[in-house]
Write a structure and sequence with these properties.
The chain is an alpha/beta fold and about 160 residues long. The protein contains six helices and five strands. Strand 3 (about 90-95), helix 5 and strand 4 (about 115-120) form a beta-alpha-beta unit.
Amino acid sequence: MSVLCAVAKISKVWELNLPALSILVLHGPNLNLLGLREPGIYGSLTLAEINRLLESKAMELQAEVLPMQSNHEGVLVDAIHGALGKHQGIVINAGAYTHTSVALRDAIAAVNLPTVEVHLSNIYRREDFRHHSYIAPVVIGQISGFGAQSYLLGLEALVYYLRQ
């Protein structure tokens, strides 16, 4: 996309004068190793690069993102609780906690904020234990298998949902 095209697209959003949305983006365990960890599965982009892509997409959508990564389940639960009254929605890649954490599932259900679950890889084309998500029943949608684009699609879908 040319710079001129990007500026025109951003200007068009600003003309709509939409209220800014604040979206919490949670990255779960081992995602701090993106770019190094199994690039054939997770891609070669680092977490910092994915966060920059998210910030750019958020600006385009007239929203803001607050990305946070933790390898600790309780820290992620606390972040979800802390989103109440601060953010209008959540994008979450819970990593391995997707398949094990009732605590994250319950936290998402408790705050009742629109949430989109994302995964870099297609969890349904991987090991059997990855086919089950404890989070899926309490989120508005799930996007997986598109690499870093999964995050951008998730953000776009969440903003669209919030603005309806």
